[in-house]
Amino acid sequence: MAGASTSMRLRLPIACIALEVILIILFGVAVEYDHDVSGEAGHKTNTTHHDYENEFYYRYPSFQDVHVMIFIGFGFLMTFLQRYGFSSVGFNFLIAAFSLQLATLVQGFLHTIMTGGKIHVGVESMINADFCTGSVLISFGAVLGKTSPVQMLTMAVFEVILFSVNEFILLSLLNAKDAGGSMTIHTFGAYFGLMVTRVLYRPNLDKSNKKNSSVYHSDIFAMIGTLYLWMFWPSFNSAITLHGDIQHRTALNTYYSLAACTLSTYAFSALLNHEGKLDMVHIQNAALAGGVALGTAAEMMITPFGSMIVGFLAGAISVLGYRFITPFLESKLKIQDTCGVHNLHGMPGILGAIVGAITSLAATKEHYGNGLTAVFPKITSDFPASAQAGMQAISLVVTLGIALIGGIIVGFILKLPIYGAPSDSQCFEDGVYWEVPGEPEDCQELAAVKSGEESEKLN
Amino acid sequence: MAGASTSMRLRLPIACIALEVILIILFGVAVEYDHDVSGEAGHKTNTTHHDYENEFYYRYPSFQDVHVMIFIGFGFLMTFLQRYGFSSVGFNFLIAAFSLQLATLVQGFLHTIMTGGKIHVGVESMINADFCTGSVLISFGAVLGKTSPVQMLTMAVFEVILFSVNEFILLSLLNAKDAGGSMTIHTFGAYFGLMVTRVLYRPNLDKSNKKNSSVYHSDIFAMIGTLYLWMFWPSFNSAITLHGDIQHRTALNTYYSLAACTLSTYAFSALLNHEGKLDMVHIQNAALAGGVALGTAAEMMITPFGSMIVGFLAGAISVLGYRFITPFLESKLKIQDTCGVHNLHGMPGILGAIVGAITSLAATKEHYGNGLTAVFPKITSDFPASAQAGMQAISLVVTLGIALIGGIIVGFILKLPIYGAPSDSQCFEDGVYWEVPGEPEDCQELAAVKSGEESEKLN
Amino acid sequence: MAGASTSMRLRLPIACIALEVILIILFGVAVEYDHDVSGEAGHKTNTTHHDYENEFYYRYPSFQDVHVMIFIGFGFLMTFLQRYGFSSVGFNFLIAAFSLQLATLVQGFLHTIMTGGKIHVGVESMINADFCTGSVLISFGAVLGKTSPVQMLTMAVFEVILFSVNEFILLSLLNAKDAGGSMTIHTFGAYFGLMVTRVLYRPNLDKSNKKNSSVYHSDIFAMIGTLYLWMFWPSFNSAITLHGDIQHRTALNTYYSLAACTLSTYAFSALLNHEGKLDMVHIQNAALAGGVALGTAAEMMITPFGSMIVGFLAGAISVLGYRFITPFLESKLKIQDTCGVHNLHGMPGILGAIVGAITSLAATKEHYGNGLTAVFPKITSDFPASAQAGMQAISLVVTLGIALIGGIIVGFILKLPIYGAPSDSQCFEDGVYWEVPGEPEDCQELAAVKSGEESEKLN
Questions:
Q1: Any A CB within 8 A of C231 CB
Q2: B116: pLDDT confidence band, cut at 50, 70 and 90?
Q3: Taking CB atoms and an 8 Å limit, are B27 and A446 in contact across chains?
Q4: What is the SS3 assignment for C368-418?
């Protein structure tokens, strides 16, 4: 699968520079500031617009929380591998910085496809672009350690486009609700990535390489990622909802779901181990499933009670997935899922979609009062809650369809021997693509003494 | 003290699942959204309520800062131990996720005890629950390394209840001011934890175990915790104050107190070392005492000048505590205070309570103008500033009483041989409760070569 | 250059305590709360002032992001050195906590020099003080590993004063725009620090010490610093701009500049390595140059298109600087720039100043509408855009002049043999100023076995 050479000397500069130049040209042609970025809102058209009504103050703190999740959260979550920390954090950084630019264009283009006009950018587009980037990074988690950076950039190009198309179908055509992206981000990213890694299957990965595991310190680095994702997930789910009580409620529901999820994660992690010992992989990942599983329903009147039930189930499903389903996927279906994204994003994403559809059934005046239209703008006497629930269910099917088919096609594109992919024995190893420094001096001294001894013996 | 088995195979799942199920049921029965979470405020009753007046926008950024302090701040501060990083971060995570749920219920119940009705949740309840959680984590710092996770969950159940009762007495019955929790959070958490660790005294801890210390990298991990606590303490103290100038002032005062505290910490750390070398334990902990010591007075007109004096003193006291009082507590009073919470939270908390009482004496129209009622709603011509100061002083006594007595009782409850507590030789060791991965490959190779040699020698 | 003794036993306590006492006295004499901190705005003078109009809500989230950049960002960015992590994070902490207090006084004094009256403090002064601190920490990066903490505190005293004078000349006298500090913070801090390290030149540094390099884990710690700087740079550049659309636009432009910069950094890092391997030094530093280079122009109508071009160039220049200019500076000009601040802050800062001057040329009604006065308050028919651009250019010259001359003078002050500076062989070594714990137990065991063996051999 890999070409003879893994050198990035020309491949990576060409890819990065070509992509960035294209992005810059397209931004020059097609993008302009949104009204309350350019100042038109405040200065030209509407003299009663106050500064504090600028979208910036409603959304920028949430944006920054999401931004931390994308770069620190995803980046450090993947540093658990013992010799792949540079790549985990570093390629996460590269792919994210690229994806958010492309996503701005593609999402913006689809947004203006009906109305025409230029692509408007502002804090909302920044959040939406980060969301799309999150989906790409989920897929990155599935193929982590087995791909070159150019391969990843190529995957990102296709995935950003497919993500945006799927998102457009769900939110604009089917009128589905999915503020936190149970379907658009998590389900899509996970199943897309799983198909890519399926096509890129490496039969000799296990035999040739023992670096697909953690060491003590790398697991603690990974907990930095976990905790930032966990803490800021309420901001993630609520970042793009309507202002006021809806944003407030979305954050609150997510907070309870995550708390309940954490307890079920610890419970099932201990229960499934023969000695009752906790497994860091579960804690690092499954405790987050509560955020994923509330990605659709968090803005609805699901109540803290409902949120906690969903979170509890999500944690349990996710731990069981790591224990039983991941080995099954690898041995039977030849799906090598490095970070277990199926357990953190795949199954909890589907659960979230189902919970969203069920919760939509209660979308009535009785539960929402005059706020009903704010959450479900399409619901009327002609389009009842059950119809909304149906659209939610159809949205899940559409998402799975596009993710699975898209992932297979993109997988084959990524199989071309042009990307400098690592050989099986080079997987999970930073040294292929990075200048890696030596060990701490004390260890070097030990090693030096040791080799001195050995040469002594030889003499 | 420990039962023969430390297995968490059944204990932890039973505890987590039972507690979570009870929480979920109680949330289902007793909890509902606050007005500006459900949308009632915006949509039903009051058409002039603007989105930007939603409590969410006043408090959510502060809440997220507090949240980071609880999960990253406390969690990483305790990773200084060389082989207890998984437990420090991981059990901190578990206990916090549990405590914030229980705290919501208990604090909410006491809040509605007069008025009746359901418990209302929103961003304010989230902050208050995190505050209570902070107090539990302070106690966790005192017993760190010597307790099982089930023991910790049990402690949390009792401590959350006692914390909430004490907080209710102080804030609702005695009308004390304590926005940043010098008394309710820090003094309470520290002395409660010190009593628990006193009852759980392990006479052979020092002889059998040398892991109660740091290594180079673990001290750098701990600095992540320190710095997040330090940076976000202004948000912590101001998170729950009234809006506007009071919140602004609280953050500002805390910022100056911490800055001055840092300089005195470095000064005294160098001064107390024979070679003038700085001690990481002091930097990691004492530099934070300035935030603790302003927990009561930060919202008052203490001025930057006063804040800096308090911060300077707090840093000095805290370093002196680590140098002289912690060894005394351990050798004479049999109080084994793993993280030195007496120095970071205990003494600075008492200092903060005293500073609060003294600053209250200046609670006059002259200093506060029309803002007096906002800070001290009870002060009138019949209830002068001196009466407020008296209430502050009484509050400190009440807090110490409940913490000391409560800690002793809970300590004895935790002594029961049912929790799977570690033996003395298992303390400060992740391997008891966690699947711990091996060392980095390079070290393994060294070790392998070594053992090869040894077997060679044996032959 | 170093005195015989490096002991901080008396030096550091005397310096810290003396400085803090002076600060406290000056704060007591000269500082008072700003209007919306004391509550005068809300309660006394203006009954229509709403809480949500308090400056706190516009700026505090940005302030906290800046605060994280100062303490975690700068602090961890410098932990890349293998045995200097305590000092990097710890002295960064000390110097920052000191500098922000002094900066409040000096900036505040210059601010009131025309109008008289006391120095007002609030969230704006907090941000401005953190900005000045950032400049000091840039200089700290140039001399990192080669100076004592007392030397650093001394440098900070002078640099804070010179920074504030330069800032006052630029912003108040020359009416230059520089919201994100391309000139005031980055150019000033870099060239000041480079001159200091030039005067403190150590000819034998390379021969005697091999610790001026990273190890695997220290590079991952450094990435924490990098990513926080990268993520929060939009907050940095926009923290102190006018409210509303300007703040919104500044954050947005910076976001795009950084994204483009990241791709060019990866491209040039791979291109300049013979095997096409990425260099962590480039990723950690050059990817941030896009934020520096937009420090002046980000609030202007530079558009995302323009921002991305600037970011792309900045990344390229910075990587080229690390590869070619830093070795040249060291070998030919005797400037030992530990962190390469010339590449991250120096050249990109100058680029940012030039971009700002050029962008100012388009400061017309046509581009800005009624918002023109908000961004460029001085521009009128008598003072056209070209005059503004001229002032921007003059500002760069003034900044370079003060930084270079000031740096040389302060360098000679720091050469006095009274600070306990380390000898050449003690550079980049925590053990000189810190109690450093041993290695992890496993390594100790290895070492113990080893030394046992050796003594066996001796027998």
A1: yes
A2: confident
A3: no
A4: HHHHHHHHCCCCCCCCCHHHHHHHHHHHHHHHHHHHHHHHHHHHHHHCCCC
CB–CB contact B52 C56 (8 Å): no
Confidence class of residue C42 from pLDDT cuts 50, 70 and 90?
Answer: very low
CATH of the domain at A444: 1.10.3430.10
Query: What range defines the domain where residue A196 resides?
Result: 16-449
Those residues whose C-beta lies under 8 Å from the C-beta of residue A139, and which sit 6 or more positions away, are: A155, A159, A189, A190, A192, A193, A196, A341, A407
Q: Identify which of C83, C248, C251 has the shortest CB distance to residue A36.
A: C248
Tell me, what's the pLDDT at B450?
44
CA-CA distance, B355 to B349, in Å (whole number)?
10
Please give the structure tokens belonging to residue B128: 């208050």
Q: Does residue C459 fall inside a structural domain?
A: no
- Residue C211's pLDDT band, with cuts at 50, 70 and 90, is confident
Instruction: Note the pLDDT tens digit of each residue in B162-187.
Output: 999 999 999 999 999 999 999 999 99
C437 is a domain residue: no
Is A123 an interface residue toward C (CB < 8 Å)? yes
HEC assignment per residue over chain A:
CCCCCCCCCCHHHHHHHHHHHHHHHHHHHHEEECHHHHCHHHHHHCCCCCHHHCHHHHHHHHHHHHHHHHHHHHHHHHHHECCCHHHHHHHHHHHHHHHHHHHHHHHHHHHCCCCCCCEEECHHHHHHHHHHHHHHHHHHHHHCCCCCHHHHHHHHHHHHHHHHHHHHHHHHHCCCCCCCCHHHHHHHHHHHHHHHHHHCCCCCHHHHCCCCCECHHHHHHHHHHHHHHHHHHHHHHHCCCCCCHHHHHHHHHHHHHHHHHHHHHHHHHHHCCCCCCECHHHHHHHHHHHHHCCCCCCCCCCHHHHHHHHHHHHHHHHHHHHHHHHHHHHHHCCCCCCCCHHHHHHHHHHHHHHHHHHHHCCCCHHHHHHHHHHHCCCCCCCCCHHHHHHHHHHHHHHHHHHHHHHHHHHHHHHCCCCCCCCCHHHCCCHHHCECCCCCCHHHHHHHHHHHHHHHHHHC
Mean pLDDT throughout A366-390? 88
Q: Is the pLDDT of residue C271 over 70?
A: yes
CB contact under 8 A, A24 and C312: yes
Looking at residue B205, its pLDDT comes to 87
| CA A284 vs CA A170, A182, A228, A269, A271: distances in Å | 30, 19, 11, 11, 17
In a domain, C160, yes or no: yes
Closest listed residue to residue B338, CA positions, set B194, B144, B191: B144
Q: What is the mean pLDDT of residues B197-226?
A: 88
Nearest to B86 among A219, A267, A268 (CB): A219
The C-alpha atoms of residue B333 and residue B335 are separated, in whole angstroms, by: 5
| Angle in degrees, CA B298, B302, B307, rounded to 5 | 70
pLDDT (0 to 100) of residue C208: 53
pLDDT at A45 over 80: no
Tokens for A92? 């996460």
- 3 state DSSP class of C108: helix
pLDDT at position B373 is 87
The model's pLDDT over C59-97, given as tens digits with 9 standing for 90+, comes to 999 999 999 999 999 999 999 999 999 999 999 999 999
Is C434 within the bounds of a domain? Answer: no
Phi, psi of B278 (to 5 degrees): -75, 145
The answer, for A69 touching chain C at a CB cutoff of 8 Å, is: no
* CA separation for the pair A20, A28 (Å, rounded): 12
Shortest Cα distance, chain B CAs vs residue A369, angstroms: 7
Q: Are C437 and B251 inside 8 Å of each other by CB?
A: no
- CB distance B12–A276 less than 8 Å? yes
- Total domains in the fold of chain C: 1
